[in-house]
Every structure is written in C-alpha cells, then in structure tokens.
From TrEMBL:
InterPro entries: ATPase_NBD, GppA/Ppx_hydrolase, Ppx_GppA_N. It comes from the Bacteria. One of its GO terms (molecular function) is pyrophosphatase activity. Residues 44-359 form the Ppx/GppA phosphatase N-terminal domain. Gene3D superfamilies: 3.30.420.40, Exopolyphosphatase. Domain 2. This is Ppx/GppA phosphatase. PANTHER family: EXOPOLYPHOSPHATASE, RETROGRADE REGULATION PROTEIN 2.
Length: 370
C-alpha cells in the first residue's frame, strides 16, 4: 500500500496541565477519544487559561488492528476487546456528564473492509458515535499539539507521529517567520496546511506524508523472521524505503536550525529508558531533547536484551516488547536520513490536538491564535 499524500482541527494553547480542580462544572468539560490500531485512549479536560486540566483519562491496549495486515478485516476478538474498552469510556463520559466531545478512529478503521460494520456495532452496543478521520487531519492535530515544544531557533521542523497502523510526518519551513513567533505559527496551522493567505507570519508546510506502517503493522510485515537483529534491520530498511520521495534537503547546512519532534509511545518509552525511570514521569519526559547517540544507545540495549529481556524490563512491559522494536526501527530510519542529531520528545498527540481544537472553536481558551 503506497503512502498517502493528500493536500490540505483547530487552535491551540501552550501546554497541558494534568491536575484537575476539585469541582468541575460539566458544562465546561471536553472529551477526546483516539481509537488507534493498537490503543484506545481518552482524555476528559476542563479549559483553564491557555491550557487545560485533565479531569479523567483512559488508556488501554486493545490491538484493534491485530491480523489486519493479513486479512484486511478487523477480527471478532479485536472488535470484542475494543467494544469493552469503549464501554468504559462511555461510563466515564456519563459520570462527568460531558457534553462537548470528539471521538475518532484512525488507520485501522480507515483500512479495514468491515469498518462500517464495526462502527454500527459500537453505535448499537456502546451508544457512542465514532468518526474516522483522514490522515491529513490526524497529522495536523499531532503537529498543533506539539507547538509548545518548537524552539525559537528552529528554521526547519519535522513532526513525526508514530502510531500503531500508520506514521504521519510533516515537514515545515519556519525560516521566514520571526523567531519569537515560530511556536504560534505552528498553532495557526489549524487553518489547514495551505495557509498562504494568512495575514500573520505563517509556517510553510513543505511536504507531508502518511505512511501506512506503524508499530503494529510494521511488526506484522516480518513475523516470519526469527532472528531479532535481522528483523529489526529489515523493519528499519522497509520504513526508510517508504520515505524515498519524502527526502530532506541534501545540504547539511541547515543542521543547526533543524528540529525533529517525535510523538508516540515509542518515543516516550525510549526517553524513559534513557532516563532510567523506574516509574514513568510525564514531567521528565515531555520536552526532553535526546541526541541520536543517546537514542542509538537505548536501541542497542533493547537489542542486546532480546525478546525475553525486553518483556522483563518494566519500562517496556510484556505487551510492548515487540512493538518497541518496530517503533525503534522507524525512529532509527528517520534519524539516519534527516539532517539533525537531536530529537525532542513529546508526550502529547492526537487527543491533545482534539481537545485544543474543540476548545478553540468554542472560544474558551485565553491567548489563543485567531
């Protein structure tokens, strides 16, 4: 399946706070649910200033896309697991009396032949409506959620969102934007990737791509390869091949002004491993900048541990040991071909983008971009 490259949701504050106030007015609550190929995740939040407080959350590995690469369909067992998780989400929405919500599905539902049947089952058994969003909107929301992490020194930016079934990459030129305005220029991309008519200094989207390979689908491509190191090398090679037409400047001159921001469970897990965290701490991971050497060291350690060692590593866990290697293969391929030796870690993504978008449209965020 070839990468998709269509052409060009919606405004955005500076950061996310995860400490909810004691009493919350239900009328002020917003929810965002992201049903991906591997995980079902939801946030319920209340706007505060230019940020938001997370009131409740949910995250579970449902493996909705298990076997999709081979069959082209969502399996009965995957659908059953996902519906049970969605019922938990519905109870949380009812408990908090949430009125403003956006509940979306991504690559697995975009690709599955029986996705309409699945959506009908969710409507009937869970009582919620899921919306399948297009790759461009998924990419835009991920980019906007990362805006607070954009350095004022950045002239060329690559935002990478490594999902379960696909990987979105957006290449942005900020060289014509005054340095102090660069994070805000990223926020303005809620207008779309084609924003040349904006009266404000604007970020130019040079190129973007949605590669139909994420941590789950890339792993499934090489299930028949027994050797751990060989499988990793093949995964990294295949992903790099998919980026043949999405190449950076050949010139190394922009290295100093180039920034990569990575958002995914892979990136945050690698960061937690680098920091040696016994227990995951978002405050230490979100915004961390890692060198390519530090990332390579973590990945080499994953390989030396082998499958069983990765299962026993509390920072990875039994259910992610295979997925962390396919995600690491994607990460390694990106760092090989893009002219930078650092990566900024983002513990944020589609859910945060969905929340920012809803709140901005309703005008409940302060200091947002018009």
């Amino acid at each position: 399946m070839a990468p998709k490259r269509p052409t060009g949701a919606v405004a955005f504050p500076k950061a996310v706070e995860h400490l909810a106030p004691a009493k919350v007015d239900p009328a002020q609550l917003y929810a965002a649910l992201d049903l991906g190929t591997n995980s079902c995740r939801m946030l319920i939040a209340q706007p505060k200033g230019s940020q938001f407080h997370v009131v409740d959350s949910f995250s579970k590995s449902v493996q909705l896309g298990a076997g999709l690469e081979k069959s082209g369909r969502l399996s009965r067992s995957s659908i059953s697991r996902t519906i049970q998780a969605l019922k938990v989400c519905r109870k949380k929405l009812e408990k908090h009396e949430v009125k403003h919500m956006r509940l979306v599905a991504t690559e697995a539902c975009r690709r599955a032949r029986n996705s309409r049947d699945f959506l009908r089952a969710v409507r009937r058994e869970v009582g919620i409506e899921l919306e399948i969003i297009k790759p461009e909107e998924e990419a835009r929301l991920a980019v906007i959620s990362c805006a607070p992490l954009v350095s004022t020194k950045t002239e060329q930016l690559l935002v990478v969102d490594i999902g379960g079934g696909s990987t979105e990459l957006v290449w942005i030129d900020l060289s014509s934007v005054p340095p102090i305005e660069r994070p805000r220029a990223i926020m303005r991309l809620h207008r779309g990737f084609q924003n040349a008519d904006s009266p404000f200094p604007h970020a130019k989207v040079v190129d973007w791509i949605s590669v139909p390979l994420g941590v789950a689908t890339l792993k499934d491509q090489f299930n028949d390869v027994d050797d751990d190191s060989a499988r990793f090398a093949l995964m990294s090679w295949l992903f790099e091949e998919k980026l043949a037409s999405f190449a950076p400047y050949a010139n190394d001159a922009c290295r100093e002004g180039f920034q990569i921001i990575g958002t995914s469970g892979t990136v945050t897990t690698v960061a937690a491993s680098h920091l040696g965290l016994r227990r995951y701490d978002r405050n230490k991971v979100d915004g961390l900048r890692m060198t390519s050497e530090q990332i390579d060291k973590v990945i080499r350690n994953y390989l030396s541990l082998g499958p069983e060692g990765r299962r026993r590593d509390p920072r990875i866990g039994r259910d992610r040991q295979d997925l962390i290697m396919s995600g690491s293969a994607i990460l390694q391929a990106l760092l090989r071909i893009w002219p930078t030796d650092r990566l900024s870690v983002a513990d944020r993504g589609l859910r945060e983008g969905l929340l920012y978008a809803q709140m901005s449209v309703d005008g409940v965020l302060e200091d947002t971009v018009p």
